[in-house]
Amino acid sequence: MFREGDTNMSEYQRIENSADAEQIYAEMIRVFGKQILLDKYRTVGVFLDIAPKMKEDAGYLMKAFDAGVPQHFAKASGLEKPKAAEFQKKLCGQGIPADTAIDLLEYLGHAVGMKVNIRPDYSKGGEIPYAAVKGDNLDEAIRKLDHIRWFLNNSSRYQMKGMDGSLAEMRKLMNNPGRNEAELIDRYNKLVHKFRNNPFEESFLFEGKKEAEFSSRHLGAYFVVVNQTPVALEFARQYGGSGFEDGAKSLKAKHSAMMKQVTEYQKEVSSISFGDVHNGGKKRKAVAFIVVSIIFMLLFYQWLQMRFMGSGIKSLFEVMKDNQFAVKKVFSAIPVLSHPAAYVALGIVTALILLCAVILIIKLIVTIRNIGRVQDSKGPENRKKKLTNIFGTSVPKELDGFMEKISQYNSGKLKSLELSQHDYSQSVKEIGTLKNIKISEAKGLVAGGAKAALAWMIILTAIASIMSATKMRSAVIASASEFGNAVTFKEALSETVIPVSAAEYNGHYYAIYDDTSDWWEAYARCIMLGGHLVTISSAEEENVIENYIIGQELSDVYIGMVYTANSEGVQDWIWVTHEDMAYTDWTETEPDIGDAGDCIYATICKSDGYQWRALMNDYTNYYVCEWESLDAGKVDQTVMNIPAGSLNYNGHYYAVLDGAEDYASAVEICSKAGGYLCMIDDADENTNLYNYIVGLGYEDVYFGYSDENEEGNWIWSYTGEAGGYANWAENEPNGYTSENYAMYYSGSTAYAWNDGEWGGTDSLFLCEWDLQ
To answer: Which of 294, 385, 510, 699 has a 20 to 30 Å separation from 527 between CA atoms?
Structure first.
């Protein structure tokens, strides 16, 4: 095979792997140069010496020489795409498969260092040509991956969920099937594994529609196994042979399995028995029992109304009427009047009765339902006949018809066969429903009539007792209207600002606070909460307040009495409500006014046996607020957010706060507290605010006026508007862009405003609340 002077065989590498044709060409050109491609027999001889096992590829090379292809690679410096396409067409004309022709051109190009741009891009769609020569050899077609090409070309026949990416990747791999064969087969097998692969289950639904990840409505798209490889039935049919016959047998087996399942359903239908469904006499007895039970329930409840409601509740109403108890005391009296032991016994019996009631009521409902079904012209028997016809005739007939169509498709009489669905899942469910119908339960319920009547009497007693208790509760609620329309003491207080820990006496409510520093703050705080500092008009009222103070373990508490000028201008002790001084309880030697003027306030003191003593303004932090009704405590809950010591001016409240990093944070803090950053409307308000701030010992305090958004355009944060009252100090504002916030400033004239920079969280600012 070698000419004289040829390179020795030992100078090139023998290729043992019969699949690596590309390396053979590369090794040949490396040793002999590309000029060897001008000599047909020498080239083929060297090819076989390097790879003796690749005789088929050597034959393809011989045909390529006949088409003049290798000679071009020996002479030319490049290969344009049109020329490459021409060569591929010539090679295919020599009987070389399309993919093999592309591989051969690429191998030669790579060996001589020439780029060959001919391979098609199937990833963007289009028909993928088959590799094998069409014939009767199904195994050869599978070996050439033609079954995968068919699958990709017919992918529109399948319904897939989220697999578009896998299909696109497989089409991309098909650009070079020889190199990507292993990955193509792996991806194909993984996709096919998701296929349900039973056209009978796709067409005849007995358990409701089940959506597979990957399914098809075309019979030919279903897979049969040929030499352990899943192949579409339509693809296998093109070749015939054992693979196709195996697929046909598999479909027959699936038909037999489906027919067996239908036979089981038919047996279930035949076994259904409804009991004594046509016994009209027993049916009438059941209906009569139900009617009599309902009448008995109404009569028994009326009897209980006459007996029980006439006595048990009456005594309670009399207690409420005669003694005028408050709601809390009325409810405290209920256990005493009604005997607690009886309540416990009634509770236990009621629980047992309700358990029995649930069971019997369920039986009653089932009986009523079953009687209705028997009466219905389309009752259980008719439905059973319908199911017998469905599973005994209709479904088998449709299955046999479907199998006949499959046979016609396999024989070629039908070119294609699209599957249609027959949903019998409701019929299968109907079998289970009919199996559970036992009209004989009505017979059993009537047969035990005496026991049932006794059980119903117990049930109705419980129902009447519960309804009576409910009526009693409603009566208490109605009678409690004069005490605040509340069911319980806590429910009544929950709608007010009055604490649930408050004491109650004769419709008045009392609560102790400790959030002020002097008597006047306490006075203002009680008014804000809708009440006033407590006034005491009797020993009984004082006793309630005294016990409340003792319960709180407190010592000294302010009450609402102050030594000041009365309505006639004379210095005297007066109540904050200006009511008559009908009752006092001064300790011995009190009240001792001395020369304190009008700075003396009444205080209940523990050291004096909880009698009263005259003390100075800032002696204690504790004080008692009084509300004369629940309605008085129904004030805006915002007052609960207003700090103690706030200024009350003209229906508005003002407090100095801190902790804002910037102006916007101050606006937010005031808003969350239910108010807004202070807005000053006139000179009187300005004067009161300044005096309030100075009185607290503060000097530099901001309020809600700023030009931070536009220099010189001062806006109130509360309204978002400019203008209105202003009281700038001389030569102010003068801060230009750096000082953007109005404030009271220690370096300015009294009551006058200054513009300043925000000083961080230590900055003080005024919040305002409008409760009008």
So the answer is: 699
Does residue 425 surpass a pLDDT of 80?
yes
Contact of 161 with 213, CB cutoff 8 Å: yes
Count Cβ atoms below 10 Å from residue 544 Cβ, excluding itself.
16
Q: What is the pLDDT of residue 566?
A: 63
Q: Is 307 helix (H, G, I), strand (E, B) or coil?
A: helix
Give the pLDDT band of residue 441 (cuts 50, 70, 90). very low
**Which pTM does this prediction carry?**
0.42
CB-based contacts of 556, cutoff 8 Å, min separation 6? 603, 604, 605, 606, 607, 615, 619, 620, 622
pLDDT score of 302: 46
| Amino acid letter for position 1 | M
pLDDT value, residue 714: 93
Enumerate the H helices of 181-240 as residue ranges: 181-193, 199-203, 233-237
pLDDT at 685 (0 to 100): 93
Alpha helices in 480-538 (DSSP H): 489-493, 519-528
Tokens 């795409």, residue located: 81
| Residue at token pair 């011995």 | 588
User: Which among 64, 61, 53, 65 is positioned nearest to 19, based on CA atoms?
Assistant: 53
Report pLDDT for 589: 83
Q: Where are the beta strands (DSSP E) in 658-700?
A: 676-677
Between CA 696 and CA 764 the distance in angstroms is 12
* Length of the chain, in residues: 772
**Residue 407 CA, distance from chain mean position:** 52
Interatomic CA distance for residues 248 and 710, integer angstroms: 87
Please spell the DSSP secondary structure of 103-152, one letter per residue: HHHHHHHHHHT--B-----GGG--PPPP-SPSSS-HHHHHHTTHHHHHHH
Question: Strands, E, within 444-600: which ranges?
Answer: 503-505, 508-513, 532-533, 556-565, 571-575
Q: Give the separation between CA 409 and CA 359, rounded to whole angstroms.
A: 60
SS3 state at 656: strand
Q: How many C-beta atoms lie closer than 10 Å to residue 386's C-beta? A: 15
Alpha-carbon distance of 374 to 304, in angstroms, equals: 37
Query: How far is C-alpha 102 from the geometric centre of its chain's CA atoms?
Result: 57
Q: List, as one string, the DSSP characters of 431-473.
A: HHHHHT--THHHHHHHHTHHHHHHHHHHHHHHHHHHHHHHHHH
The rounded distance, in Å, linking the Cα atoms of 247 and 236 is: 9
- The single residue listed with the structure tokens 């029992």 is 289
Sign of CA dihedral 289, 291, 295, 297: positive
Q: Which residues contact 314 (CB under 8 A, 6 or more apart)?
A: none
How far is 750 from 687, CA to CA, in rounded Å?
9
What's the rounded Cα separation, in Å, for the pair 144 and 184? 12
Phi, psi dihedrals of residue 587, rounded to the nearest 5°: -75, 165
The residues, ordered by sequence, that sit 6+ positions from 165 with a Cβ below 8 Å of its Cβ are none
Return the sign of the alpha-carbon dihedral for residues 592, 596, 599, 605: negative
CA-to-CA distance for 632 and 545, rounded, in angstroms? 19
Secondary structure (3-state) at 42: helix
Task: Specify the pLDDT at position 342.
Answer: 41
Q: Are 507 and 483 in contact (CB under 8 A)?
A: yes
